[in-house]
Amino acid sequence: MDALLVDDSATMRLRLRRLLEAKPDVNVTDYADPATALVEAQMKAFDLVLVDCHSPAMDGIAFIRCMRTIPHYAQVPMVMITNDISEAVRLAALEAGASDFLDTSMQGVEMTVRLRNVIRLAKAVRRLAEQAAWLDGEVEAALRHMREREEEIIFRLALAVEYRDNDTGDHTWRVARYSQIVAEGLGLAPDFCRSLYLAAPLHDVGKVGIPDGILLKPGRLDPDEFALIKTHATIGKRILGGSASELIRLAAEIAEAHHEKWDGSGYPNGLAGTAIPLAARIVAVADVFDALTTQRPYKAAMSFEAALACIRAESGRHFDPACVAAFCARWPDIGVAGGQGQAEIRPSAGPVTEPWARVPTLFREIAAAAPEPAGWLVRNPHTLVAREDGPVKPPPVPPLRREPDGSRTEPRHDRAMDDGAGDRAGASQLPGRGAAPGGRDGLPEGRPHGRHGRPHLTAARPEDGRPGRTA
To answer: What is the pTM (predicted TM-score) of this model?
Structure first.
């Protein structure tokens, strides 16, 4: 242990130093000047402090009071060396934080015993401090481990949901990252930005309750099918609601409200403006943008620039204008997160802190010609956001225009705009795209296809005009 001795008397310093160093494992640093001793105490952690009460430069009471303001010395034993044992001095020293007194008039044996006792006290305090530090470290490690497991479970659940709806799990991470970027652009607290990044992937968890025949339908949805698709917001709320986890509660809020619109025309509750939770307003922008720039069974992918034009056109109508402004202000980061540049680096790309890094590759149902399965490729973070199909650049999105009766006509991108993952009622093609020869959206007549080019193993739809088909 290390002891600090402060006394302007060279004789007393020599006497106490010999007595202290006679004990095993005790190292003494002594000073005549209290100011110099204070500087040294801030650079080195001493386990025991002995100070003269009547030093000319600074009395012992003031010295102890200054030492107690240093965090390390809140519990360290401090002994006052004095030949004045009056009650007033003792009370003042105790109030300043002195642990004990050492009378300089004591003779050999008593002085030795008193020093032995304060050394034992100092060692006990040091052991307790070390044990407390160890326990703090263990608790922090356990909490960190628990948070990592919670984050991993969320991403695995989100990936399982997306496995039904998309060919690649990249949508999960991209929506999470876009949402985080927008939140940062709004100047929100770092903790909230991180929580949003972790909760956003569960925005479509309610789609586990939607039948595949509707969820994966490549053609337009009829009104009944569209109404059923919209129930995924309420289902998501039921799945995630009522959790004791703050992160899951945030995910439930997003799952329920990310299809609400700024003008009140969204679903399921028709909320408008700031009545829509901020997290849901942010995720709405991120989800729609990724849907527009991703190829789906019912549409090709837009270019980033065309999708940005759509987002801007819907500011104040579909989206919160502040969220759109933040999205545009961080456009370079959006491009990197979307895989436009090779310099894309995910935050803290180590497997310990990022949940996506612990999610294994999923071997999906793929066509026989496909060389490799799609999924999370952890070894190369650049491939985690690279799309299997390059973006298809459509013709420029036409601006909104007003009809003679005063109504507005907007670009026909409703299918992705209304739902980031497939609300497709009332639209069958993207702007500038004509229906391809054959069946709906270019599919050959007489053979409904799923997302992997395989026939749906579900009953044939009424409009197909043929008997049902079973697995």
So the answer is: 0.56
